[in-house]
Amino acid sequence: MRLLGLLAIAAPVMLAAQDTVVASPRLVWPRRPGYEILLLLPRQPIPVGRTTWGHAQLFDSVSHRLRLPVRWTSSDSTILSVAASGDSAVPIRGRRVGRVIVTVSSGPAVASEIVYVGRLPLARRLAVIPRRAELHVGDDIRLMADPRDASGRRLPGTFLMWAWSDSSIVRLVGMPVPLEVVFHAVAPGDVTVFAKLDGRTGEARLHVEP
Fold first, then answer.
1. 168 close to 121: Cβ distance less than 8 angstroms
2. Do 86 and 148 fall within a single domain?
3. What is the pTM of this model?
4. Cα–Cα dist 147/198, whole Å
């Protein structure tokens, strides 16, 4: 599988140690025709009774920012209330402990993210998808971490860390979102990629052919 080249990295990749990366930066990918929404919400859980801000930015196909009205919604306003105005920046307030999906829409463009109010649940299971893959030198591969809490609900992975066993076989390309990472195969061999969160570890094994 070969992926399109990246346009830019919005924030530098932070190396916690050799061949280890903290999942925090976002990448700017080539934009599809029309326009799309970049949704910026707090990654940390919002305390009950605290008001903060959500931001939504619209871009056209050549990355020009657009000034269009947007609609905000919360999947449960008793947990998190969101002002339903057409502004790109709106106040959001934690009402009670829980988990909601905040959605922003403008015309055909839609973006959504999970937001927690109160303490973030701990990861009880962590997998990396795909678990095994074969590729050739020159290929790119995207791996996704899948952390779940005790109830089986997916977690955002704010403090997720990635590590890999041999940087001479695969090279980090970037992270489009905290739960995903992209590697480029540079030499034949076998390498193991690890995802780590809350003391849990998931792994994927990659085999690279010439």
1. no
2. no
3. 0.55
4. 10
